[in-house]
Specification:
single chain, Nuclear Transport Factor 2, Chain: A, 6 helices, 2 domains, six-stranded mixed β-sheet, alpha+beta, 12 strands
Amino acid sequence: MTRTRMLTLAAPVALACAVCSGDEPVTADAVEQALTEYVHAKYAGDAEGVRERTHHAISRYTLEDTYFGRPSDDWLRRHSWDVLRYYGTDRNEARTSDPEGARCEIEVYDVARWSATAKFVSEDAVDLVHLVLFDGVWKVVDSAVTVLDENGAEPPAENESERDAVRQVVEDYCRGFYEVDGDKVQGTCHPGLSKREMRTAAPADGGFSFMRSITYEEIVLLGDRYNARGNINAETAPVEIEVYYVDGEMAAAKLTAAGWFDYFHLFKVEGRWKIANIIFEPLGG
């Protein structure tokens, strides 16, 4: 089993089953452990174990080019949390009697205050994931998935020639906010956009975690209002972009802007890169 990490944080910590303790640390090790448990549960046919590591409102997409068995235009299929019960059925061809010996290659790209972005390769798929520390437990909240042609197949090669195109979409998204151009922002996004941040209710209200969403319809309104007072200088404001992964059909990236950052999943739909999933945090305290 191979695990690699692009991010180095504090010294490794001893990790118990954090789903049981509900008190996971904000470290790359904890994120890696969460994803390891997710993958091993999939291999074991433990659907509830998979769902424990997954937010109930997961935004999980695959890119499709057929519809009811016939060739079609590219489109994004969204798979709900309920569908994860598939892993507990006999149709789960990734099931094995040796979950810990099966392929589980994890890269943790970045960890912030309560969110993280990573990739894992299992026997049957490549998953780009966003996680949030939801009620003290790291859970997968976004996923972009490429299903491999057969178990054990080599994952798609990264496509360096697409990096500039992905970077340009992310830059256009950011500059649309600075330029008070909601149409420009929305034009970078897929109509199925999921853009969310995690919030925590006040202690008097229960102190629970919840996800706040901004829809595709709302993103144009936000773009037209975010910098309407001109507090951000569109010429000098930061647009820092990291492209973590890109192949022929999906990509993962991060934008650090003036006052916030976004983690992105993008898909190449009908020849154009579109943002499908976003998890964001404000910068600062």
